[in-house]
Amino acid sequence: MLRELSAREMGQVRMFILRALDRCNGQPMPDSTLADTVSLAFPHLGPMESATQSAAQELVAQGRIAAIQREIDGTTLWVITDKGLGTLAAMPR
Asked: Is the distance from CB of 42 to CB of 13 less than 8 angstroms?
């Protein structure tokens, strides 16, 4: 059963996405890989595809990540931006 995540949980998902994309060292991450990674990191929150998309879109709107559409197959690829890297640099590890 799907439930809406709390603001705190969504914040955790957004930070996880930033950290996951940072670990890619500039290489784009396919949408399906990002969704699977978030689901594995937060199994106690249930199905995460919708929450992952919502969190990613919020990060795009904030300029912290960017989506790239691969022309050949339409796959969405995610990358962290300089603003996203700055956000991580300002956070305690």
From this structure: yes
Quickly state the pLDDT bin for 3 (edges 50, 70, 90). low
- CATH class entry, domain 8-90: mainly alpha
DSSP of 33-54, one letter per residue? HHHHHHHHH-GGG---HHHHHH
Cα 78 versus chain centre, distance: 8
How many CB atoms are located within 10 Å of the residue 35 CB?
A: 18
Instruction: Specify the DSSP element, H or E, that contains 8.
Output: helix 7-22
DSSP state for residue 3 in the 8-state scheme: -
Grade residue 14 by pLDDT with cuts at 50, 70 and 90: very high
Predicted TM-score (pTM) of this structure? 0.90
Mean pLDDT of 70-89: 95
Cα separation of 79 and 70, whole Å? 13
